[in-house]
Amino acid sequence: MELIGGLVGGLIAAGGTVLVVTAAVLVGGIVVVSRRRARPAQVSASIRRRAGSALVRADDRLAEGEADVEFAVAQFGERAAQDYRGALRRAQSDRDEIFRLHRMIDDEPDAGLANRERADRIVMLADRIERALDEQARSFRERRSLESTAPERLERLRTRIAEARGRLAAATTQRDALIERHARSALGPAVDAPERAARALDRAEAQAADAAPGSTAAASSVMATIADAERLLYAAEEALEQVDAAAARLADAVAALQGLRDDARAARTEALEAAATAPDGETGAAITAAVAQLDAAVAATGAGPAGGSSASGAVAGSAGGDADRPSDPLELLDELREAMDAVELALASSRTQAQRLAHAREAYHAARVQTEAQILAARDALGSGGSAGARARLEEAVDELRASRSLLDTDPVGALDAVRRALTHARDAEVLARY
Predict the structure, then answer these.
(1) In terms of Cα–Cα distance, which of 163, 138, 150 is closest to 72?
(2) What is the pLDDT of residues 247-276, one digit of tens each?
(3) Burial class (CB in 10 A: 0-12, 13-18, 19+), 435
C-alpha cells in the first residue's frame, strides 16, 4: 500500500510540474506574440519621427541657404553667387522629393518596409542638402574673412546703408497710409517694419563706424564687425520690402473684393429670379436664406445690398466697413466668398454647365488672393520652427495653388476646387504651427 501511495503521489507531482511548465510556455508565447504585434506600430512611429526630423532639418537648411545666397549676392554680386544658386536649385529639387516621400508615408502608414526605405531616402536627401549648402556657405565665409576686401566691403556697406535710409521715410509714409485704410492686423509683419528697419540701420551704422580705417581693433575683429553690420543691413532691407509686399497684397485683396461684389450683384439677381420660380417651398426658402447671407456680407464691406447701386463704389478707403473703423479686406473677402458659395450651392441644381464654368472663373481670382495671403500667414507662423506636419500641410497648399493655376484655362471648376483645397491646407498649417 505504501508503494502504491508513493507512485500516486509521484504522478500527481509530475502532473503539477507539467502544468506549471505548460502554463509558463503559454504565458511566454502570449508575451512574445503581443510584442511582435506591437512592433509594427512602434516601428511605424519610429519611422515617422525619423522622417519628420529629417524633413524639418532639410527645410530649415534650405531656408537658411536661400537667405544666405541673397546675402552673398548683396555682398559680392550675382555673378559671384552663381554656383551657390545652382546648389540651391538642386537642394530645392531634393526638398521636393523629401516632401513627396513624407506624404507617401502619411498616406500608407502600414507599409512597414516601404516606409523604412522611404525614411532612409529622406535622411539621405537631407544629408545631401546639408553637405551641398554647407560647402557653398563655407566658401563665402572664407571669402568674407579675406582682410584685403575690408575697405571695399566697408564702402559698399555705407552706400547701401545710405540707400536704405532713403527708402525708410517713404516706407514709413506708405505704412502709415496703409494703417489709415486698413486694420493694423491686415498689415502682418509690415505693421512695425519701418521701426525695425530704423533700429537695424542705427546698429549697422554704429558697427560700420567701429570698423572704419584707423580702428585699433585687430584685423579679424574688424572683419567680424563688418559682417555683423552687413547682416543688420540685410535685416533692415528685408523689413522695408515687407511694406511694399503688404501694400501689393492688400491692393490685390481690395481689387478682388471689388470684383467679387460686382459678381454678387449678378448672383443676387439670378438667385431672386430662381426663388420666384422654385419648384417647391423648401428650395425657394434655401435660395432666399442664401441671398440674405449675401446681403449681410456685402453690407459688411460698407456697401448697400448686393443688388443696390452702391455695391461698386465703396471699396476705396478702408476697403469696406465703417469709414471710421478700418477693416481687413482679406477678412471681408473671406466672408463674401462664403456667402457667394452659399448662393452657388442653393442654385447648383438650376444652373447650366456653362453658368457653373463662368462662376468658377469669376470666383477663382478672389480665392487665389485669399489663399496667397493665408500661405504667407502660415509661413510667418512657422518662422524658424514648426513641426514636420505643419510644413507638410504648407507644402500641400503650395502644390495645390500651383496646380490650380495650371487648370484655370482648361478646367475652371477644378481650378477653383484646387485653390480652395490650398486655402484649407494653408489654414491647417498655420494652426499646427501656432499650437
Answers:
(1) 138
(2) 998 998 888 888 888 888 888 888 888 888
(3) exposed
Nearest CA to 396 out of 386, 388, 407 is that of 388
User: Cβ distance 133 to 64 under 8 Å?
Assistant: yes
Q: Do 187 and 256 meet the contact criterion of CB atoms below 8 Å apart?
A: no
Dmax over Cα atoms in the chain, in whole Å?
A: 119
Question: Residues 215-230: pLDDT tens digits?
Answer: 555 556 777 888 889 8
- CA–CA dist 140, 231 (Å, integer): 14
Query: 213 exposed, middle or buried (CB, 10 Å; 0-12, 13-18, 19+)?
Result: exposed
Does the pTM surpass 0.85? The reply is no
Which residue, chain included where needed, has cell 506708405? 174
Contact, 264 vs 298, CB < 8 A?
A: yes
Cα separation, 319 vs 367, in Å, equals: 17
What is the separation, in whole angstroms, between the first and last Cα of the chain? 82
Please tell me the distance from the alpha carbon of residue 272 to that of residue 265, in angstroms, as a whole number: 11
Please give the DSSP secondary-structure letter assigned to residue 280.
S
Lookup: cell for 425 = 491646407
Whose cell is 486655402? That residue is 423
